[in-house]
Structures are given as structure tokens and as C-alpha cells.
Amino acid sequence: xxxxxxxxxxxxxxxxxxxxxxxxxxxxxxxxxxxxxxxxxxxxxxxxxxxxxxxxxxxxxxxxxxxxxxxxxxxxxxxxxxxxxxxxxxxxxxxxxxxxxxxxxxxxxxxxxxxxxxxxxxxxxxxxxxxxxxxxxxxxxxxxxxxxxxxxxxxxxxxxxxxxxxxxxxxxxxxxxxxxxxxxxxxxxxxxxxxxxxxxxxxxxxxxxxxxxxxxxxxxxxxxxxxxxxxxxxxxxxxxxxxxxxxxxxxxxxxxxxxxxxxxxxxxxxxxxxxxxxxxxxxxxxxxxxxxxxxxxxxxxxxxxxxxxxxxxxxxxxxxxxxxxxxxxxxxxxxxxxxxxxxxxxxxxxxxxxxxxxxxxxxxxxxxxxxxxxxxxxxxxxxxxxxxxxxxxxxxxxxxxxxxxxxxxxxxxxxxxxxxxxxxxxxxxxxxxxxxxxxxxxxxxxxxxxxxxxxxxxx
Length: 459
Prior knowledge:
Layout: H1 3-11, H2 18-50, H3 55-79, H4 82-97, H5 100-105, H6 119-151, H7 155-190, H8 194-221, H9 223-235, H10 238-252, H11 255-270, H12 275-298, H13 304-329, H14 334-361, H15 363-368, H16 394-418, H17 422-435
Helix pairs in contact: 1-2, 2-4, 3-4, 6-7, 6-12, 7-8, 7-10, 7-11, 8-10, 8-11, 8-14, 8-17, 9-10, 10-13, 11-13, 12-13, 14-16
């Protein structure tokens, strides 16, 4: 119904033709149907996660993606973009369906009961309204992204491609560990055991940062190989690869902040405070929008300016949140900032080593003199063809990229063990538990199936 208004607003960017805008509106209207399935499946996810059943909610998105992929492969030639659109709806249905048997196994049964004044219903509504506002702010932010990216030629593609990559560590580590910690945080608060609450929170947040910060550095160093491997040279020419790499680098600076914000959000929810995250999110969205307009419209920067505004806003959100949240729980800043400083330092060392290795063993660097190494005229005296890899070939690019990642990760982890970082020790304990399908090692407690207190919000 709002299609024409959307068309008028986005059309200001100049990045879409009239026919393209018409197609976007048509496909968006179809995609709305899938949201009804997500509405129910997200409710099921909350039920399962409140009982510490994390595996099925984690697997459910795979069925959503499979729906898109299979539909695209089978029908894209016949119906074009309508194929992945319909696949998204089918995938959303299976996102719901895969969780249904496990929800029923927990004893959940749907009953039509009208009790608007029930204590649980009233509490749920009070907690849900700010959460709805927070999610709405997130969507507004994405909408501003779309508008700003449409101003720059190729901006939407660069932004969405880089956003897909930067979202992986946030989802894999930030979201999964935050969800795993939420039931324990809720229980400790309900029993007024704030000492254990703080302990679980410190451990979870530091563990997330321990994983995410080096990945951010790796993404900056390996931005071009990553983009080439994920999106391929056939779809992305060299200029597309470079521009997407710049956007990914700008995103990478704020990845740690957004991963941490997921842990903070669960902390606030466990305290039955859903209003504070909304206020902080509003500040973040406002800063993001203002900086985005300043960088793109004011300074005329390329698409990476949008990603940079996103990172700056995220870091500001992180700083505000940590001060507000720690004031509520009487937390210690040193418990976070001391390990954080160590992680940044170790990640920088490993990143520097990765950069040197990448430049030394990439043949293009020597031939085209793409870095400072070319200034040494080393190619005249060193038979570089005997030990470097020609990354114009996909296999060589894969070998070099994964070798650099392996070396960088090893350096980071060994240095962390050397200085006796607790997060490195925790990782050694988590890995075997993770391989067995348990995500609760970080809280050092067995899985419990008994329901949480009724006044604890599910997410």
C-alpha cells in the first residue's frame, strides 16, 4: 500500500530506473507474505531458546536460505527475480515448520484464550513495546542506507555485499553466545544473585570480543581476497572488488561494537529493562543517519562512507551502553577494557604478520608493485616465481588466503595463551563441548529443561 510513497522517496537517490522501482515494489509486496510465517517461527524460537534448545533455532535459517537457493536454481531462467522471492516465502514456511515438532515436544499447545488482563500478558506487552520500537529503528536505519547507497553508482550492490560479509561474525559469535547466556542471566537476576550475573555477563562479552576483534582485523587485511572468493571475478570486476573491499574495511571497524551490543541487549532484557536499549539505539540511528548524509551528500564520499558512519555510530553506542549498563549492575569497567586492550593489541600483531605474508607470497604484488615491496626492486634479484602464488587462479587464491588466515589465527591464539588470557583458555574448553552440540560451557552449567520464571521475557 505504501509502494508509491516508497517509490517517491527512493527515487530521489537516482540509482533506480522507473521500471526497476516498479519491480522492487512488486517483489516487496510479495515478500510481505513470508513475514507472517516468520512471526510465528520467531515465537517458536523464543520458546526453544528459553529452554536452552539452541540447535534447532540455529539450523532453521538454513532451511530459509535453501528455499531461496533451490528456487533460484530451478526457476530463475523462467521467472527471473520472482524465483528467489517465492523461494523466500517457501523458506520462511520451512523456518517455521522445522521448529514446530520440537515446540510441541516441550508441551506447547495452541489454545484460543482471551485473557487480556492476565499478568503474563500485561508484562509481555510492556516489555514488547520498546522492543518493537528498537526493531523499527533498525529498519529505519536500513532504509536510510538504501537511500544513500542509491545515490552512488553501484552503491547498493557494494553495500549489501559487504554487509552480508560483516554480518557473519556478528551473527555467529555475537548472537549465538548472547542467546546462550540469556537464560542464565535471567535466572541469576530472578534469584537476586547479581555476583553470578556479573560473572556470566563478563565472561560472555569478553568471549564474544575475543572471537570478533581478530576477525575484524582479518577482514581488513584480506578484504580483496575475501570479496574475490565469495562473489567471484565473473560477477565482480576489479573495480567492484576494490569498492566492496573498501566498504567491508569500513564495516570491520565497528563489528566488535555491534556484536557486543547483542550481549548488552540480552543483559538489559534479563533485567526486565527494554526501554534503555531503545533510547540508545535511537541515538545510534540518528548519528548513523546524520554522518551518512554528511559523508555521502556533504563530502561526496563513495559507498564506504555509509559503512564508516555505521561503524562510528556502533562504537558510540557501545561506549554509551557499557557506561549505562554497568551503572545498573554496579559492574567493573576494568573487567572489559583490560581484556579488550589486549585483544586489540594481539589482533594488530597478527594482522601485521598476515599483511606481510600476503604481500610477500602474492605474485601480483611483485609484478605490479602494488605495495611498498615493489620499491625495493627485489623482483630483479629474487626468483620470486619459485615461491609466490599467481592469485589470478582461484585455487592459488584459496590456498594463500586460508594459509594467511591459519597463520594469523595461530599467532593470535598462541599469544593469548602466552599472556594467560582467560578467553583463550575458555576456547580450549568450548571447542570439544561445541563439537558435541552443547553451547552452555561458557556458563559452566548443565542444560536445564525446566521453564524459567514466568516474569522473565523470552526473546
